[in-house]
Write a structure and sequence with these properties.
By secondary structure, the protein is an all-beta fold. Helix content is 1%, strand content 55%. It is elongated, with a radius of gyration of 32 Å.
Length: 501
Amino acid sequence: MRFTHLLSVALLAAPLALAAQGTGSEQPVALTIYNQDFAVARTSIDLDLHSGLNEITTTNVTSRLEPDSVVLRDPAGKRAVHVLEQNYDAAIVNQDWLLQKYEGKTIDFQFATPQGIQTIRGTIIRAPSQSPYEYSPQGQILNGGPAQPLIEVNGKMQFQLPGTPLFPATTDGLLLKPTLRWQIESEKPDRLSAELAYVTGGLDWNATYNIVVPDSADVTGNEKADFVGWVTIHNNSGTEFTQARIKLMAGDVAKIQPGSGGRAMQMMVMNGAMAKAEPAVTQKPFDDFHLYDLNRTVALRDGETKQVQFIDAAGVTVHRNYIYDGAAQMPLYYDNGINENRTYGLDPSNTKVQILQEIKNSESNHLGMPLPAGRIRLYRRDSDGQMEFVGEDSIEHTPAEEAIKLATGSAFDVKGSRRQTDFHVNVTGHLLNETFEIKVTNQKQQPVNITVVEHLYRGANWEITDKSSAYTKTDSNTIEFPLQVPSKGEATLTYSVRYTW
């Protein structure tokens, strides 16, 4: 298996400059990104302290920083950094911010006319704003939501800006970048390179996998496939990282979210340009999770989506199986230990046969790397060599030596049917018997192996009294029958079950 590192970048927003301002020098940032829309950022700040109270400012932070997560310390642990006060301001200047700052004041607005660009004076009675909705117990909106601007022009009110607002160049309090400010007490003059660490939102990553299989499987259902894995990193933190060392944490790490609701995933447009091979992505166990290291310094712009290939394996065995579950939609239901309804579980009968792909994540199968959760797409090569998409599924975090199972669709030429052929219940004797017939047809040019799944849903106590073939009990109320269906033919199995209560 080859662990390669290739980059393909699409710029989704204009870059925003970032600088660390402990002493004005730019410092690299180490990012550990979690697949839960947050990251831990670490950088260094050169502190030049004099005796007494020091005012220290840095803009080497994001606009999604969690202020109470900030740690400023001596990485050597030899000197204590006495922070008396910390202030964080993420209110980066924009048009709405300036309109709010100038509420009650009169400014110029610029607009285009057939005669050219003109200006008009207007008083900002109310700036546009967005506040959370407040609801009544009945669910009605009481307050909140977007507020339109209210501008007075020539003695009249209007609910829109009369043009592009022009603000005085001497406006105080302009903040071009998110900023941290500290008041640090020092007993004596001192110089040190302090470590700044914090948790930030707006950084996320996810894994995707592409599997390419040949035009047909052998008689056992096995195929030799190419297996490629990518990680896609999203930066919506509001900050550009010009030099970043990136690690990715895979696993379900407990993190208290400030509010519910997800963010829309941005579409990634790849430019098709591949960089030269870089040092391989490595992984190691870390605590109860897995940590992946890109092993290089990269630039990660605000609004950018960066894709990194981290696994590339050939000759991976993919086993294709077919599953028929005639009562797939039936919920379990016990009524005093038994369900005596003759038609329960019979209608509607499922006719679709599911296609299941199974891959062993082992070194012997040219894999064996812990695989982060993500989406897997399956492609098949046509006889002319062209790849066609034939299904996809998602996987959970998968350790080495475990099997990956992918449900990639339903077979077109393989169908199933299920019917009850006998039923008898003796309520006083606490006894119920029923018999089923399962038939699978196959219009493919080759035979197929089917796993027939049956749910013994009427009661907890059951016994198979007759069967046309052997079965395997997979849990307390599920059994599976292997069934081979010839090409252009059909196969039938029957079984009888007795319930007691």
